[in-house]
Amino acid sequence: MSNADQESWSRVKERLRAEVGDDVYSSWFARMELEAIEDGAVRLSVPTRFLKSWIQSHYAEKVLACWQAQDAKVVRVELIVRSAVLRSALPKPKPELESASPRFPSVQANGRPPATGDAGVHEALGGSPLDARLTFESFVVGRSNTLAHAAAKQVAAAKRADPVMFNPLYIHAGVGLGKTHLLQAITWAGNAAGERKMLYLTAEKFMYGFVSALRTQTALAFKETLRGIGVLVIDDLQFLQGKSTQAEFCHTLNALIDAGRQVVIASDRPPSELESLDDRVRSRLAGGLVVEMGPLGEELRLEILKARVMAARTHHPSFDVPLPVLGYIAKTVTHNGRDLEGALNRLLAHNKLTGHAVTLEMAEREVRDLIRPQEPKRVKIEDIQRVVARQYNVSRSDLLSSRRTANVVRPRQVAMYLAKTLTLRSLPEIGRRFGGRDHTTVLHAVRKIEGLVGNDMALAEEIEILKRQLQE
Ligand code: ADP
Ligand code: MG
Fold first, then answer.
1. pTM flag (> 0.85)
2. Fewer beta carbons within 10 Å, N or C terminal of the chain?
3. Which residue in 245, 144, 134 sits closest to 200, CA to CA?
């Protein structure tokens, strides 16, 4: 392949990144490579079948379009799965070992396997408790979590003998955006399928139970234990602390991945920002599929609320929340899924305790403190000058000029007044931005307008309208 081809490929990648955004790009395209260009056909490779099918079904046209924009001769893009040279060099998973452990086939009269004396160890190797409500059925898919959901589904549905598609699957998102929900959903679904042993651990459990249990075992027993795990799911990795715990984590991660076992991780930040972990671990974490879940959009919030009400009605059939109330909550309550749940719980409690139907008024009262504080929009002085000039039909340079005719003096004063009330700029700064005027001139303008709006309703209203335009 020529240098020119590689150069085109770099440009195409930049174009793709610009079009789909950094997150999507790094989730799906970061490991795509150019294999060949021949007769108008571009051959690209990706490391896994899943990536191939996902890109094919979601981005095939976009990829082609980006190529064509770079090189009009391209008519076709072909995707292939790169031969996994590295993976085949690592030990293959040995799923048969799980079923074939005929060493202690005996079962006691009580139906349990005989105690082996290290029951405490095995106890500690158990997972963290799961919440029965956090399943795929109750997980609502929207724009911000499509990728994460698709990947989670894929992991949960994989069969024991299937090659692992991406390892680890690393999901990151802010608080309350559904990480735990998705991880537990994977665990439930995997358990139900019964194909592989699922182990869900919070980072805390990993630190205080799992690791110490592992330490009490011999190296052989450690391997044996890991062999029993089909899928290791670790939640809130950012809480993993302590050098030795991290070393143990690294060891476990490597052993599982090398043995072809699936690892799923959630954290509140991307691998690159897990400062306490060393570089090798971070790059191993980043080497699978990293997916971010964005804030829950309003639509998604509404769908989640609807689903929640339906779920609540199985226990409280009379609980009814009118659509406008749900719309109000979806619009005003923060992006955090926990607050949505909290809001509904309050309505339910109120409804149960007082017997009053849920109304918009009641909702407004009940969820007041969960309402997202409206970020005051940062208004720029240029915007003020532009909007005011348009409103009064003068030019922006008129406002900055030294002209003193009445048709520019008043608008200029209004603009200065707005600059003082809507921005944090000081009087001298505002003066400078209005054609280098003195701060006393600005002060005079501000006082003048303040005095006028008290008596002049029309002016007061005009200013209100300008403010609203600027803050929208
Ligand atoms: P995180 O672990 O990211 O902090 P959780 O998974 O605990 O967040 O989610 C917080 C709450 O929001 C939970 O009650 C969860 O069920 C709900 N939630 C978040 N995202 C979704 C979603 N996409 N569909 C349904 N419920 C969701
Ligand atoms: Mg969580």
1. no
2. C
3. 134
